[in-house]
């Protein structure tokens, strides 16, 4: 399994890039979003990759983060979603957008991707809604893998409570922090969601908190 490539960009096309790794050229298919973020031809780049093997075909797909790679794998697990369709969804929404759409059950957002109809979009949301929290909580793993240090502003501070937050609340806070929400806003939303449903598990808490944090009107 080829999990990551680091090399020089030799060529860019509309849906793939050719990366020279010590004299060996690898064709890597990427989303529009990833292609637009890559440096110009001739410069160095690094991509996490997923090797998709079919009976008569082997293709490499490239991603800037491990979260994107994991979403690609999960999206392909949905019946009717192939590798190119999974790329299209992430290219339209981004990894954070996919997380929000699935956590909130917003299949219309998924349907905005090219080639994705309403039935497939609904199936994506239904099949992956319980898996979204684990992917959303991967931020720390990604930072370690890419060598990026988390900014102090991104670190979720402990909540002042009479009792420590439950495991579900802690996981929900971590997921919201990885999506870019501030510690105080995330804590308030999770606390309110937990107060309304004390028995809620992590996926339900995240969905409820995201609804509370969503712009009004």
TrEMBL record:
It comes from the Bacteria. Residues 166-217 are annotated as: Domain III. Residues 168-214 form the Holliday junction DNA helicase RuvA C-terminal domain. The keyword Transit peptide does not apply. Residues 65-142 are annotated as: Domain II. Pfam families: HHH_5, RuvA_C, RuvA_N. Residues 1-62 form the DNA helicase Holliday junction RuvA type domain. It is found in: Cytoplasm. Its main location: cytoplasm. One of its GO terms (biological process) is DNA recombination. The keyword DNA-binding applies. Transmembrane segments: none annotated. GO terms for molecular function: ATP binding; four-way junction DNA binding; four-way junction helicase activity. Keywords: Cytoplasm, DNA damage, DNA recombination, DNA repair, DNA-binding. Residues 1-64 are annotated as: Domain I. One of its GO terms (cellular component) is cytoplasm. HAMAP family: DNA_HJ_migration_RuvA (MF_00031). The RuvA-RuvB-RuvC complex processes Holliday junction (HJ) DNA during genetic recombination and DNA repair, while the RuvA-RuvB complex plays an important role in the rescue of blocked DNA replication forks via replication fork reversal (RFR). RuvA specifically binds to HJ cruciform DNA, conferring on it an open structure. The RuvB hexamer acts as an ATP-dependent pump, pulling dsDNA into and through the RuvAB complex. HJ branch migration allows RuvC to scan DNA until it finds its consensus sequence, where it cleaves and resolves the cruciform DNA. Homotetramer. Forms an RuvA(8)-RuvB(12)-Holliday junction (HJ) complex. HJ DNA is sandwiched between 2 RuvA tetramers; dsDNA enters through RuvA and exits via RuvB. An RuvB hexamer assembles on each DNA strand where it exits the tetramer. Each RuvB hexamer is contacted by two RuvA subunits (via domain III) on 2 adjacent RuvB subunits; this complex drives branch migration. In the full resolvosome a probable DNA-RuvA(4)-RuvB(12)-RuvC(2) complex forms which resolves the HJ. Has three domains with a flexible linker between the domains II and III and assumes an 'L' shape. Domain III is highly mobile and contacts RuvB. This is Holliday junction branch migration complex subunit RuvA.
């Amino acid at each position: 399994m080829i999990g990551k490539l680091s090399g020089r960009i030799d060529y860019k096309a509309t849906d793939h890039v050719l990366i020279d790794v010590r004299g060996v050229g690898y064709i890597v298919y990427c989303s529009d979003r990833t292609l637009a973020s890559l440096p110009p031809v001739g410069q160095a780049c690094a991509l996490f990759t997923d090797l998709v093997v079919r009976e008569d075909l082997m293709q490499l797909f490239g991603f800037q983060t491990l979260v994107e790679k994991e979403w690609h794998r999960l999206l392909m697990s949905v019946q009717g979603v192939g590798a190119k369709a999974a790329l299209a969804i992430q290219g339209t929404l981004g990894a954070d957008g996919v997380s929000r759409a699935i956590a909130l059950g917003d299949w219309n957002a998924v349907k905005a991707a090219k080639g994705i109809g309403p039935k497939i979009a609904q199936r994506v949301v239904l099949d992956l809604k319980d898996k979204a929290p684990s992917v959303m909580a991967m931020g720390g793993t990604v930072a370690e893998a890419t060598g990026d240090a988390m900014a102090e502003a991104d670190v979720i501070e402990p909540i002042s409570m009479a009792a420590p937050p439950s495991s579900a609340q802690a996981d929900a806070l971590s997921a919201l922090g990885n999506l870019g929400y501030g510690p105080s806003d995330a804590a308030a939303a999770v606390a309110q969601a937990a107060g309304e449903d004390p028995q809620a598990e992590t996926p339900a808490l995240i969905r409820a908190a995201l609804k509370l944090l969503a712009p009004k009107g």
